[in-house]
Amino acid sequence: MKRDVYLNNQPLEEALENFMRFLSEEGALTAGTPETIPVEEALDRITAGPIYARISSPHYNASAMDGVAVLAAKTTGASETSPRQLKVDQDFVVVDTGDPIPPDFDAVIMIEDVNYPDNETIEIMAEASPWQHVRLMGEDIVAAEMILPGNHKIKPADIGGVLAGGITEIAVHARPKVALMPTGTELVQPGSELKPGDIIEYNTGVLAAMVRQWGGIPIRREITVDDYDLLKKTMLSAVEEADILLINAGSSAGREDFTSSLISELGVMVTHGVAIKPGKPTILGVIKGKPVIGVPGYPVSAILCMDLFLKPIIYRKQGLLPPPVAKTEAIVSRKLVSPLGLEEFVQVKLGRVGEKIIATPISRGAGVIMSMVRADGMLRVPRTSEGFNAAETVQVELHRPLDEVLETTVVIGSHDIAMDVRGD
Amino acid sequence: MKRDVYLNNQPLEEALENFMRFLSEEGALTAGTPETIPVEEALDRITAGPIYARISSPHYNASAMDGVAVLAAKTTGASETSPRQLKVDQDFVVVDTGDPIPPDFDAVIMIEDVNYPDNETIEIMAEASPWQHVRLMGEDIVAAEMILPGNHKIKPADIGGVLAGGITEIAVHARPKVALMPTGTELVQPGSELKPGDIIEYNTGVLAAMVRQWGGIPIRREITVDDYDLLKKTMLSAVEEADILLINAGSSAGREDFTSSLISELGVMVTHGVAIKPGKPTILGVIKGKPVIGVPGYPVSAILCMDLFLKPIIYRKQGLLPPPVAKTEAIVSRKLVSPLGLEEFVQVKLGRVGEKIIATPISRGAGVIMSMVRADGMLRVPRTSEGFNAAETVQVELHRPLDEVLETTVVIGSHDIAMDVRGD
């Protein structure tokens, strides 16, 4: 019955900095070999390097209007009082938008400004200036110009820019592969018949979706029971297959928690135990140059841990930093007591009352997945603070844009207040 | 050479309202038959109705800690001065986090608070209160509780909530299928050898990515040349196959612009010509109860048109409204002249100068796709306005979050200023 009862209690910023430095020194944060893919499939992928135009766009001088191409010099002096007649082919040709301007012509007159006395003649009432209504070659893109920088996330318009520059395939960073390894003898697949003690293994579904949102590829491993040799075998094969290994549960100091011993045996355990709540039993390590994170089993802890430690790795391996988290100021609706020495993360609902935004803490149980389903944002209580007083102003990290949150507050808010009384 | 030279000039809000009302009356905005899919594949899909829990979570009373389960009544009076000894099985059983609390027990004492005088005995120094460190059945989710409302976009944590409630498959709105029909004899596929007059057909790549971002499924049709019968045949088959038809180019009044005649022949043309710049020749119609949009050929016009007219349809067909567009106040860097009678959309770069955010208009050519590649946001010049003066305060609709924009302003900004001189 002897147990390794306690863990470290490393401050979050120190744990994160140490881990990232360690990974960086191990080369575990660099992008893999770029992939070459068709531009049209590149939405949301990240350029592996700058992309330069192969051709100009337009690649010829093009009519910008439906009308007639003319030589501007031949229109000099035309006016309403002295209209000028021009002969087809010799003095003008009909052009549609996008048509090339033929040699010996240098301007376009809009169709609305032209009269047709007969089928071979037009009459104009104004001079054309050279290159009017002409899209000059390279107006949009000049050959060899940089269309997109490296490490750039591709949006719809970028696809157009790259194709217009004559490029059909581009090199993008490989999407990091993240092996998700659920462990625990008590776990059963969703949909199984349940007996007391069975825990539905739903974390992997959540974690896989998070990996996808950040640009990674989740590789779902089957549930591994709490058996040292089986876990070891699975971890080794997962590390072969993936760029990052995530072990879910088995990270506290309970009697069947082998994760930390196995990471130490197979690689380096950098940190075991971070001064955060929830998420304290987090393990950070490296096996064969691959980042390995041991994530606690409770869903709220697991989600938080992913966000704090896995997200920056996935982004960096794609040449990016995680995007800044949108925040809002809000007023805490009630006193919030939090332990000294741990940085606590509290999920909140937001609502507008008059001019103010009110943040109401919701269930703080690490096992309450519904707190994450309902939350609009999250606030941090620093390690050195014992909490907030009612009506204190705080910074809330938003889970979704504030406009969206406030738009749906009435309906979802009232539902939640009722449920929260029970859930907390 | 006779031409139907001009179009309507309907104000945007009127065109949009008319079109949406018409579509609504035709039943063209309702969602299709819902799909049933595995929860784990439901990220970013929209629930077709509320989702209720089938079971409670936890579905039994569970230990919230590693420790020992006891009957609280048997611990009454235990203290540091009078420790209480308890016998295994009879008075306590060892439990790990998540284990069921056996019958006849009602509390858990944390392992850290227990001494082991021998293998069959523990000693405690404090009373346990009933249900301490126990996660009661239904603490997270109560059977029959609503986990998610209908018309809700599924985020990672939601997947956990639904699975925890014993649900493995859910009904979601079908993703609207959008047929994208590029038309024009001058168009060539990206990657083709080019001769003057050939236009690389890159719009479909952009439009397909936009459709995907909004939750739709793009169906790419091949380029159709400007031939009335061919266009008619393709439009009819596209309308059979898809929920929405988008015809790109052929929407102005040029000599080969058959789109409007064909929409009138095959269905109803609701609007031809909207008082916007760019995007004036937009066509809005319905064929066989399906929305049909004729989008101008210039890329900037096409993108704007998609955003104004297609986006609300795709969202509504999934039971949603488009999310609110994030905005920021900014100061226009230079005088901006805009025609009366047209609502103009001007792409801008943003930068911070001291406390202020400065919006610099970039190229306004409807053919300049790079203006969309470079833009951070867009401002609207109302129909009744002739533009803005330098240093006037304006509302900018953001293409990406302001924090992200300002983070990268220095690098991309300077690149852009150099390029803009040429491009505008």
Automatic annotation (TrEMBL), chains A, B:
Pfam families named in the record: MoCF_biosynth, MoeA_C, MoeA_N
Domain of life where this protein originates: Bacteria
Enzyme nomenclature, EC number: 2.10.1.1
Annotated ranges, domain MoaB/Mog: 179-316
InterPro entries given in the database record: MoaB/Mog-like_dom_sf (IPR036425), MoaB/Mog_dom (IPR001453), MoCF_biosynth_CS (IPR008284), MoeA-like (IPR038987), MoeA_C_domain_IV (IPR005111), MoeA_C_domain_IV_sf (IPR036688), MoeA_linker/N (IPR005110), MoeA_linker/N_sf (IPR036135)
GO MF annotation list: metal ion binding; molybdopterin molybdotransferase activity
Keyword list, A-Z: Magnesium, Metal-binding, Molybdenum, Molybdenum cofactor biosynthesis, Transferase
The family this protein is said to belong to: Belongs to the MoeA family.
Gene Ontology terms: biological process: Mo-molybdopterin cofactor biosynthetic process
Cofactor: Mg(2+)
Catalytic EC class: transferase
Name under which the protein is recorded: Molybdopterin molybdenumtransferase
CDD domains for the chain: MoeA (cd00887)
Organism from which the protein derives: Desulfofarcimen acetoxidans (strain ATCC 49208 / DSM 771 / KCTC 5769 / VKM B-1644 / 5575)
Membrane-spanning ranges: none
One cellular-component annotation, GO: cytosol
Function: May be involved in the biosynthesis of molybdopterin.
Pathway(s) per entry: Cofactor biosynthesis; molybdopterin biosynthesis
Catalytic activity from the UniProt record: adenylyl-molybdopterin + molybdate = Mo-molybdopterin + AMP + H(+)
Origin organism lineage: Bacteria, Bacillati, Bacillota, Clostridia, Eubacteriales
